[in-house]
Amino acid sequence: MSGQRTGFSRREMVLGAGAVAMGAMGGGLLMGAVGNPISRAEAKEPQAVPWPYEKIDPKEAGRIAFEGWYKGFCSYAVASGILVSLQQKVGEPYRSLPVEGLRLGEGGIVGWGTICGTLLGVTVAVGFVAPYEVGKQMLNELMQWYSDTELPLYVPAQPRAEVGVKNASNSPLCHVSVSKWCQKAGKSFASAERKERCARLSADVAMRTVMILNDWKENKFKSDLKYPPALYGTTGQHNCYECHGSKVPSPIKS
Amino acid sequence: MSGQRTGFSRREMVLGAGAVAMGAMGGGLLMGAVGNPISRAEAKEPQAVPWPYEKIDPKEAGRIAFEGWYKGFCSYAVASGILVSLQQKVGEPYRSLPVEGLRLGEGGIVGWGTICGTLLGVTVAVGFVAPYEVGKQMLNELMQWYSDTELPLYVPAQPRAEVGVKNASNSPLCHVSVSKWCQKAGKSFASAERKERCARLSADVAMRTVMILNDWKENKFKSDLKYPPALYGTTGQHNCYECHGSKVPSPIKS
User: CB–CB of B252 and A43 under 8 A?
Assistant: First the structure.
């Protein structure tokens, strides 16, 4: 966590023993299985993170995320908004990543209501795209923005249901975000309106993330937002009272 | 979420336009950039999930996860325990996945204390390894096991600090899990003991996950655990009272 140092060497940032061996070969040509030279582009060489980023269209990422929700729910939706856009724009190594593998983040991980699946999808996508320290800042900003903003904002070209109500969750947790919206809208978790709300919110998170990534690509991304452990001496959200009421425990200092 | 149907076609389960084109080529040989045939093993062909699984050693996965925590914290640690083991045992497509991209789950996502990073790492790893419906059951079981079990259990060959206290978190959330342990142990978040606790817990989660995956490989994995939305009409944990006290709201029914 914040304030702790990690010990990755450049060597370890490339994957596994095979990666190190291939990396050591250096130049642009590798030998294929039958001894013929093949270009680096075709060779199965693991590519260390961060992967190359090119600016993509936030609106298109939002559209993919919205449609993606109805195929694989929140985590898959947002990851696909970003990563499928990059598969199309950049190609490899994004094309080798099966975004369908990120579906299990749905509903705060298979319905447990923990982290909003959209933010789990973003955590993985940004982890491949952005350098570690910058990615941390981006996630910190996104968690705060998600908590503070009246969502959803996105209006799809082809809505599946009407969503008349927006709400600020004051939390990045699925259970809190969804339940507050359901209470405010008077709609059940199983309703078409709740599903549409989560699909639109997926588009919002994908679009916001792409806007941040595009800003970073243009050297315009800055963040001075502190991480929760730096402020509170433990991990957590900023609104301790919401769960603890007035009885917020003091973290152990020793 | 549970009870909803998703619309992936077999075609969409393979990644992107390039994947479909290459998949349509069928056989075992593809053409390299210079026109020489190269084997499928070397070609950059996306592989749909689930990826091939072979039984791996839980203890080795635990060792990798424990050591991994001190390099990249909880999410990376557990993902590497499983996925680096599979890189070594199976090779591709695992070798093309840079596990370092999963670091941002640390501390419940960059210190926000949401889902325990170990379970975020597992969500991604299981998502690549297990078929969707089975992966859901595995995650459901792991969330419950994590919440119920007095952790950590793992004892490393080379401890960095002593960990005399175990605790059951009754929650898969980082903030809840870590804070309860710190209170019980009388140790701060910044202490060497808390770090060692999280490193050992990473080993526990990796080992438990591998045992489940190995059981599944031998057709021994079964689960009849219901998902929270099926029980409560919304996403959430099973112990509503912990945050809500006696005032647990009723979910909207309409």
Answer: no
Residue written as tokens 């996403």?
B235
Mutation target among B22, B88, B114, B240 for the A interface, most CBs of A within 10 A = B114
Predicted ipTM of the assembly: 0.86
Give dist(CA B12, CA A199) in Å, integer. 19
* Closest Cα in chain A to B45: A96
**H or E stretch covering A58:** helix A58-89
Question: Is A113 close to B236, i.e. CB distance below 8 A?
Answer: yes
The minimal CB distance from B8 to the residues A71, A113, A124 is found for: A71
The confidence band for A217, taking pLDDT boundaries of 50, 70 and 90, is: very high
Q: What is the pLDDT of residue A200?
A: 99
Nearest to A174 among B96, B126, B235 (CB): B235
Interface contact B98-A38, CB threshold 8 A: no
DSSP string covering A153-194? ----SS-SS-----B--SSSBHHHHHHHHHHHHT--TTSHHH
**Which of the four pLDDT bands, split at 50, 70 and 90, describes residue B8?**
low
CA distance B115 to B107: 8
| Residue among A34, A92, A111 whose CB faces B227 most closely | A111
Closest CA–CA distance from residue A218 to any residue of chain B (Å): 22
pTM for this one? 0.86
Percentage of chain A exceeding pLDDT 70: 82
